[in-house]
Amino acid sequence: MPISSYDIVIGLEVHCQVKTNTKMFCSCATGFGAQVNTNTCPVCLGLPGALPVINHEAVKKTLIAGHMLGCHPPKISKWDRKNYFYPDMPKNYQTTQLDLPLCIDGEVPLYAHNYPKESVKDIDPNKPVIKLDHIHLEEDVAKSTHFNQHSLIDFNRAGTPLMEIVTMPDIETPEQAVSYLKSLQQILIYGGISDADMEKGQLRCDVNVSLKPKGQVKFGEKIELKNLNSITAVRKSLYYEINRQAQELDAGIAQIQSTRRWDDELGETQLMRTKENADDYRYFSCPDLLPIATEPFMEEVKSLCPELPHHKQQRFITDFKLNDYDASILCSERSIADFFELSLEQGAGIEPKKIANWIINELMSLINKDNLSITQCVITPTHIAGLARLVQDNICSNNQAKEVLQALADSPEKTAEAVAKELGFEAASAGDNAELESIIAGLLADNPDKVAEIKGGNTKAANWFTGQVMKASQGKANPKIISQTIMSQLGL
Ligand code: ADP
Ligand code: ZN
Ligand code: MG
Prior knowledge:
492 residues; Arc Repressor Mutant, subunit A; 3 domains; nine-stranded mixed β-sheet; 18% strand; binds adenosine-5'-diphosphate; binds zinc ion; binds magnesium ion
């Protein structure tokens, strides 16, 4: 049967490092790049008798994420031990949450701009969100690196707060999975919950996938793909696995619930274990940690919860008359949206679209060139407002203002106005520049054939004059003023 005769059912479990200064149950520093095995203590080394203390910042951030995604916190949330032989977790249990996680239900919006480019045409308008099952908080294990004869282990990561976001089996295509992951990532960064950088392992994903004949209610047996660390790997492994399962089902081979690994080099999944030899974790409530009453957190959580990207985008479209595309670029990162709004404040009276153009067309290419984020860039919202004003006040043409921007990048302590002056761009309005008037009058008198062309409606001829005047002024004159002057001298 063709793949189109099957329903694809996908559920994702995303592990996300919560951005806190200290670990989940001790005061050791979190963070990337410290000397190995230096951020450790008896608690995160799992030494006998060490007692955990809850990191309230991690709890709060998880509740904020839940609030942004429309989850409901249970009144009381509690901690459980998941028992297992972990080579990278010497106490041999992980402190996690089983039946009373911090957040229940909720949904993640699927943003159109987060679909792979070539599949935008296939977006299903009836599928605006992916439903969540729950979000819980747990501790990360240490990081092990394996060699032929031995393994090395770094406990700096052990005990880092880890949020697990589990979807319902609600995803229907690999493309939806991609949009889900990118949209989730975008929202987590917006909320300051996590930097969610997959390359740094701050976001990792388990993929569950099964097929069933189209329309059948009962789900097929799920296959779990463990620990994928890039969105490309999620998409590729899903394609592979959907094909593999379809071929086996076609051949009458029933699937059994199992766990597989994705081999990126070979581009295939390989069986790790089946349900029969799945681990029994013997969960029980953690006797060392008190349950959490969530209500006292909620006032603060609500006040710290930022506007969601799609709400911000809609507000930009309505309030600032931006088009969809501009608004989605500006809202792709909270820091860019904030920069835009600050620029608007500095540029009272300037059309928001003009400010948006400066940020999207000029500033973004400046920072992309140097691989910077907007917060690292030396150009400020005041600069951007200043540039837009230079053009609006006819001090500079657009191209001249771009020169000002380049100069500002080297001398950010200056204002846009000051740099424009240094570069010789002067305020002028049509009619008040005698020198310009006389250059133009001379040119018009010397070129009666071109004048006739302009009068005949040929605007290219007018551009030729503008070019000549620009040359005569060594690029300092304002082309808009020049063409206004030409037209007024010709009585047009
Ligand atoms: P387990 O108890 O094995 O962890 P869960 O029921 O907790 O299984 O589900 C884990 C993930 O697998 C969830 O994201 C869920 O949506 C997804 N899932 C559950 N059943 C299926 C299925 N038949 N096909 C695909 N995904 C599934
Ligand atoms: Zn510690
Ligand atoms: Mg589960």
